[in-house]
Design brief:
The chain is of the alpha/beta class. 36% of the residues lie in helices and 23% in strands. The radius of gyration is 19 Å and the shape is globular.
Length: 268
């Protein structure tokens, strides 16, 4: 079995922990105020376990604020957030991580002076029981093997021992996906992973996302509709802090109102 196949299968414990029925995320009436400004209002959203969802909208629609509320970077002003059936509305970010939630950010957050392998190993170590140990990994360390599986899954095996500072921008974005996949996540939030990528790098990103194991659901914020519609099963459109339309990629792409507001250069 190759490293990629091993990653897709996962070990027995991870498979048992990853199998879920029902909904991964349920938002009911979620809003976030900054003083008198409502960044998002009355957002109700349901994402099934293992579902791939895209959240689209123009700049200022409230997409990243929504992500911040889901992950615990911001606590919502109103509404409730449930993660795999558990109310996590007031939980700090690290408690949501323990329950299988991960995310990436628009700005790369990497250890530039370390190699690709070191970055991914530290991510795996950070969500393991031995994360506070000062012992160096030994030959045959399971976390080293797990890191190699993740590196292959994001198509960076050839750059395993390359310093992050020497990677292309697209490769750094691929590495961020590997970090987000450490520790058997059940749902991952990707915040504009295609931003700044070349057409070739975007094609690589689509291949990576479509190749993720079926039990890992994700929500992707993306301005590139071509990328979003190729990796999502359902799409939620945001405008002025609210979700105003949902549907399949085909329904959203052919919707006249969406074309007016998003494709046709509606108000920003």
């Amino acid at each position: 079995m190759s490293a990629a196949e091993s990653f897709a299968a996962g070990n027995a414990a991870e498979r048992l922990g990853a199998v879920s029925t029902g909904n991964a995320l349920e938002l009911r009436g979620v809003g976030k105020m900054f003083g008198a400004l409502a960044a998002i209002e009355d957002v109700t959203l349901t994402v099934r376990s293992g579902e791939r969802r895209a959240v689209l909208g123009s700049n200022g629609a409230g997409k990243t604020t929504l992500f911040n509320c889901i992950t615990g970077d911001f606590l919502p002003t109103t509404g409730t957030i449930r993660l795999f059936g558990e109310d996590v509305t007031r939980f700090p970010a690290y408690e949501r991580i323990r329950r299988g939630l991960r995310r990436t950010y628009q700005i790369s957050l990497l250890f530039n002076g370390l190699t690709v392998a070191d970055n991914v190993y530290l991510a795996c170590r950070g969500v393991s029981r031995g994360r506070f140990s000062f012992l160096r990994p030994r030959r045959g360390d399971t976390l080293v093997a797990r890191a190699d599986e993740l590196i292959e899954a994001v198509h960076l095996t050839a750059s395993r021992d390359t310093a992050v500072a020497n990677l292309s921008y697209g490769q750094q974005r691929q590495l961020e996906i590997a970090l987000a996949l450490a520790g058997a996540p059940r749902v991952v939030l990707f915040d504009e992973p295609a931003a700044g990528l070349s057409p070739t790098e975007r094609a690589e990103l689509v291949a990576i996302l479509n190749g993720l194991p079926e039990h890992i659901g994700y929500i992707i914020i993306e301005h590139d509709m071509d990328v979003a519609l190729r990796v999502a099963e359902r799409v939620s459109m945001m405008h002025n802090g609210r979700i105003f339309k949902e549907g399949t990629p085909e329904e959203i792409e052919n919707d006249p109102e969406v074309q007016e507001l998003y494709l046709g250069g509606g108000d920003e």
